[in-house]
């Protein structure tokens, strides 16, 4: 089975400045190793997490057919790489924190953040998602969640090995970053899957600091991240589907998992 070569970009986000954030992404793609299959970027990479009232957030949000998605498609095609992250979306007047997965051929997948961070008022600005995003890419089954979602193991549960890789993108503050790291490892171990988590760097409009803690974790909970050999801020990892399937065959904990149904009303 083909290995999946991933690149994690813990991008420094300039809050509410789409042009600067796209410029930073484009520079990172130019520096990225050309053999990369998938680049993962932070939650709300183009704007940072939303603050203010609904109308101010609406000014930053776009439809799936808007400029942000079109530019991502162009970048994915130009650099022959899939790109995964999230952005602020506007769908029929409803606002969402929308995960995206854009393939080099232009195929697009979306899924909205389910668990909105009420302690920062995100639930007052955005509408929650009701279906976790699933993608099949280069022989890999991939699921994706956004930031606060990673705290909720039921939403992340890998029922009957439906995914091989779980992607989590975040704006996770430095003050709570140890929890972020432990949650990523826990999700990998309990779901017998690879997990890639990408956080942002910088300070937001409330002067909250983010340190870019990002990592690729294997199905045993080991950090398999490889620093940028050029000394930059990119992080690499090679994921093996053969090794994953061999481990699941040897230690099939998924067969003893609980059955459940998620109620999303």
What does this molecule look like?
25% of the residues lie in helices and 26% in strands. The longest helix has 15 residues, at 177-191. The chain has a seven-stranded mixed β-sheet with strand order 5-4-3-2-1-14-13. The model has no long low-confidence stretch (mean pLDDT 96). Helix 6 (177-191) links the parallel strand 8 (165-169) and strand 9. The chain is an alpha/beta fold and 265 residues long. The chain starts with a strand and ends in a 15-residue tail after the last helix. It has seven helices and 14 strands. It is globular, with a radius of gyration of 17 Å.
Order of helices and strands: EHEHHEEEHEEHEHEEEEEEH
The helix content, as a percent range, equals 25-40%
Shape: globular
> Can you count the beta strands?
14
Distance between the termini: 39 Å
**Average of the residue pLDDT scores:** 96
Sheet with the most strands, sense and barrel status: 7 strands, mixed
């Amino acid at each position: 089975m083909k290995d999946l070569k991933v690149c994690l970009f813990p991008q420094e986000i300039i809050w509410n400045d789409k042009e600067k954030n796209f410029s930073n992404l484009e520079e990172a793609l130019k520096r990225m190793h050309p053999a990369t299959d998938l680049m993962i970027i932070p939650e709300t990479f183009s704007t940072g997490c939303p603050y203010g009232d609904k109308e101010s957030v609406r000014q930053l949000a776009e439809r799936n057919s808007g400029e942000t998605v079109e530019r991502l498609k162009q970048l994915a095609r130009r650099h022959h790489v899939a790109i995964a992250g999230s952005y602020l979306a506007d769908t029929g007047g409803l606002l969402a924190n929308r995960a995206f997965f854009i393939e080099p051929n232009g195929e697009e997948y979306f899924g909205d953040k389910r668990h909105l961070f009420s302690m920062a008022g995100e639930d007052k600005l955005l509408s929650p998602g009701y279906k976790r995003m699933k993608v099949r890419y280069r022989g890999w089954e991939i699921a994706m969640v956004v930031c606060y979602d990673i705290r909720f193991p039921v939403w992340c549960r890998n029922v009957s090995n439906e995914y091989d890789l779980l992607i989590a993108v975040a704006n996770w503050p430095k003050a709570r970053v140890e929890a972020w790291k432990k949650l990523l490892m826990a999700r990998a171990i309990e779901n017998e899957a690879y997990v890639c988590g990408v956080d942002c760097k910088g300070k937001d409009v409330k002067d909250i600091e983010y340190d870019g803690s990002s990592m690729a974790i294997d199905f045993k909970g080991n950090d398999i991240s490889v620093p940028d050999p050029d000394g930059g801020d990119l992080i690499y990892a090679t994921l093996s589907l053969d090794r994953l399937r061999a481990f699941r065959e040897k230690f099939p904990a998924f067969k003893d998992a609980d059955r459940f149904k998620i109620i999303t009303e």
